[in-house]
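Help! Submission page says 'invalid entity' but I think these are all valid:
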Amino acid sequence: MPGKLKVKIVAGRHLPVMDRASDLTDAFVEVKFGNTTFKTDVYLKSLNPQWNSEWFKFEVDDEDLQDEPLQITVLDHDTYSANDAIGKVYIDIDPLLYSEAATVISGWFPIYDTIHGIRGEINVVVKVDLFNDLNRFRQSSCGVKFFCTTSIPKCYRAVIIHGFVEELVVNEDPEYQWIDRIRTPRASNEARQRLISLMSGELQRKIGLKVLEMRGNAVVGYLQCFDLEGESGLVVRAIGTACTLDKLSSPAAFLPACNSPSKEMKEIPFNEDPNPNTHSSGPSTPLKNQTYSFSPSKSYSRQSSSSDTDLSLTPKTGMGSGSAGKEGGPFKALLRQQTQSALEQREFPFFTLTAFPPGFLVHVGGVVSARSVKLLDRIHNPAFVGIMGNTRSYKLLDWNSFNSDEPETRDAWWAEIRQEIKSHAKALGCHAVVGYSESTSICEEVCILSASGTAAVLNPRFLQDGTVEGCLEQRLEENLSTRCGFCHIPYDELNMPFPAHLTYCYNCRKQKVPDVLFTTIDLPTDATVIGKGCLIQARLCRLKKKAQAEANATAISNLLPFMEYEVHTQLMNKLKLKGMNALFGLRIQITVGENMLMGLASATGVYLAALPTPGGIQIAGKTPNDGSYEQHISHMQKKINDTIAKNKELYEINPPEISEEIIGSPIPEPRQRSRLLRSQSESSDEVTELDLSHGKKDAFVLEIDDTDAMEDVHSLLTDVPPPSGFYSCNTEIMPGINNWTSEIQMFTSVRVIRLSSLNLTNQALNKNFNDLCENLLKSLYFKLRSMIPCCLCHVNFTVSLPEDELIQVTVTAVAITFDKNQALQTTKTSVEKSLQRASTDNEELLQFPLELCSDSLPSHPFPPVKEHLESASSNSGIPAAQRAVTVEKASPVGDGNFRNRSAPPCANSTVGVVKMTPLSFIPGAKITKYLGIINMFFIRETTSLREEGGVSGFLHAFIAEVFAMVRAHVAALGGNAVVSYIMKQCVFMENPNKNQAQCLINVSGDAVVFVRESDLEVVSSQQPTTNCQSSCTEGEVTT
Amino acid sequence: MTSELDIFVGNTTLIDEDVYRLWLDGYSVTDAVALRVRSGILEQTGATAAVLQSDTMDHYRTFHMLERLLHAPPKLLHQLIFQIPPSRQALLIERYYAFDEAFVWEVLGKKLSKGTKKDLDDISTKTGITLKSCRRQFDNFKRVFKVVEEMRGSLVDNIQQHFLLSDRLARDYAAIVFFANNRFETGKKKLQYLSFGDFAFCAELMIQNGTLGAVDSQMDDMDMDLDKEFLQDMKELKVLAADKDLLDLHKSLVCTALLGKLGVFSEMEANFKNLSRGLVNVAAKLTHNKDVRDLFVDLVEKFVEPCRSDHWPLSDVRFFLNQYSASVHSLDGFRHQALWDRYMGTLRGCLLRLYHD
């Protein structure tokens, strides 16, 4: 009996009227955990009940603590009929299970009902007493920290980055069970919410076990997704990067924060030992990457063997069945069999991180991606479990029993794709994949699985336990001494995996670099960038015939390579049009619908100083005899050239002129070419290489031979730049802007358009889609105009095709203002000045060697935990703001002079502000504590769509409610912000004829405590001793 | 291509003050967009009409969702759905409860019941204020009235506490509630020259001195109702007008004191008895509800108009009223000094305020 969960129900407020006769409510609360339920007394006739209950105590396994959510149901007591449910609160108690995070969950939670939305609030206090020894876990993995952040969290340092962890759990979707025909929508929604909550808990626990087996203590870049496969079930899958993290708690950290944290970071935690004497390679040694003494397979075989032995100690199957049996009820966990996959997964040298400790990333090869089309229809056609994209033939996989092996099947699907990614990375001479992510798109029974990442060569120092100084230290030195190392090609120049044109690096002039670089990661903090970056999107639609099962899958498989090709071409063209030479944060999303496929690629374009200046775009006509045609072509050409020139000015791209002699290249080769290596299938011999070059021309050539091509060129030119004062990017921070202010605004915007179904052509579709995205961006710029000068960061577009003629685009991003004065200075800078490190200021934001105990800080702009508790526990129904107002009596002195009164009482609100941001940091503030992961899933349904303001009113209210619930949970944990926030799913379905709509939303992020930098300085100078003590005690916990 | 759904939700709720004003003024989305286009916003921002339409819809939706909370402003402070900085919350509330002078004129002193609501249409046509805005303002008056009606303690404080209004606005509402409760007649042609501010000022003085709460702050009762006992007692003042000796004495006292100090001395001397009788009779009649309602009409008829026709400057009116009320202390036969002071204290303030063109 390793844990005791204690819950106290304090009070409720703003409850809905449940008794029409009295206009009041007789409310009571049921508190449920696992199979145990407690009830409070009925608080008669009040909309603001004060239950002030005893402590309800649940004695439970820590395994349950991890899997189960605490379920609080508020009901209206009815003597004669069944009690009416007002709503529920699910509380994930996971943050209480690791000692560094929150110690108590206490606060006002919105009471949520899947039909009515938020109906009042309830004040709850939750505590957990863990009796066990942290080292003895088998079934549970309490103590493993989870972070959504895709970089090393700010107040930690990475000791070892172990690598990829993944897991998936499959279950039947309650929505599709027979019982759903007879139960109410509310019961069905609640069953689904609860199931997903359970599955997430289980998944997280299992991932935690894997991490413990790898001897790690944390998962960074944790990404959990749901696949709603309809009839065939519900898949919850997660990937992440296992790490061993250490809390930063050196006394030196209490020096003022501005004292070059970057230097400190390099010296203390990552003790690099660059040895310039052994520098042996130069321009004369072209076979660069062969000088590395380890081959990818070798360096990883070490780890996989060790993890293999770890795994053998833990019989996972036993644990799985145990948990499944105990659940009882509808929850039937189907657990994957641990067979060969244990070893296999360690063979995936993947990292979900997108930003890395200095020195971690050695070289970047390019984007690797793989897609596979699968049929979900297991019942009708069990033999065909998969149709592999490009092979155009069905592959029989010999899994024996399909019902019990379903997770196995899903696992196998992903294993295939990962294998493919790995082989692509190898082809690029890389032993690892960073910025790795996986996604699915499902339409009826067809599912496209996608994985992508950036092939890279990593510094093995962080990957292994202990110090491995022997073999590789001296060959890494040139990368550490320059900031261009990551641009240098990792592959063998004479044996390139695809035709590419290389030049000597424009920065160090020693190593070869490609002409263009595509990556899925964030811009490395030490990269040298010229000018500013911008959001670049490629958008594409392709019509597809409606078809069934295999025919459908085949049709999709056939379309995919063309889509990829076009998306890539568009990206390349747009990049060149912007006068830039590298893409970061590239995310290509292919969405499948009934009758079309959509492709949306987003990335942040930048000009890397190390890479050559991109050539222009040249237009060539196929029919050179027509005079007017020629004229037209030259007109277009002029327009394109003007646009490039304008963009260069707009993004301040003025690279220093370098004459060819200085480069001294023996091979001043023409530059062009794309280098995105990808494929749609497992067939490695069919790796699609895109050679977009046309002979030896010095520019990117577009041939206009038909109207389609013309359209393409036109569409290139229709993208309007953001209005002045606005920038946008989909990476964490905007290269070239580093004077952020603390004003941030996170938002979600959703648009759905209905296509007119008449004679849709690809062109019309493309135009519609393009307009949809552009208009959406324009609207955002307009809405946020008061924040100018500002940058939209981490712009994340998601496309879905909920119905035949509907396209849904969901955007989440954060707008951050920056200091205009400093921005103006940078515009004025000369060429040298514009060669700034993207990091200089950001590094201070990103890396905090500081560790402060949040409780000792007077974080006055945001009410600290204590105050929150105070107001929470105060039992008088009068809000504090009102109590504060002194009740002044009217004085009988009537001279006609007005009495003096206090200012409007609105000034002091009792609801603390909780910031939300998709970024891993908060500008102008330091994150002092991570309180745990927030992972929430909500369903909202309505049968009175019109009354709730139509689809827009319905979804608007729902998203606002989701934000509110996230904020409430964070506040209850004692936090004041969510970082790395992401809305992973927003599935919206409507049936206007029936006046119904349903929406599912899944969000996640890291709850944190942050302190304004200005406050921090004051505090650290005032009470350094207190802070030191508290941080020391906290530091000890990391084991 | 038609837009089925189009929403924007910020972690901090975006409030556009201009759009909020349009919404409060009761314009439809289409009208609001047209008005915004006319304001030149498209040129300033380079946006398209479609963007403006979408933005306006979005704000309207937000306001619509907020409206429920604005009906009970403390709820706005404690709700969790919309994260709004306190200064913005205050602005939302203040603007929501703000009213048009033209509108308040029409309903001041009227019963805030359903019957009047039907007249909103007429008011809307008469004032040019949209029906929607009229309805909001009327409902605000009614809501505030309903909440504070039965409440003890200071009227302004109650309003401020339950509606979180600024001091200024809370006072205005107190006046509106007070007028509605006592049904003072304000619609007469004679009173047209007065502003809402004038009435509000008088209401405040009357609340301070003429209501139950005013006499004894410990015995806190309603600020809304005039002190019946006080009104009853004022019958006793009648003697000042009825007793000829007293009236003459009073006149001579005032005239002696003001001799040479008043520009309009002769006019005052000639009119003294009329004016005094008027003021005293107003006080004595207040036991009847009908006469309470006509208080302002009477004051204007009996005092303001006669003085105005003789072109009394305001300073002379002040001198006169001060002396007029002070001289009563020297009247030996008069025993209701305290009552007189309470009455005249309020009345002097009101009359000075009402005395203008």
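Support: the input was valid. A stray whitespace character was the problem, and the output above is from the cleaned input. Residues 539 and 600 of chain A are 5 Å apart (CA to CA).
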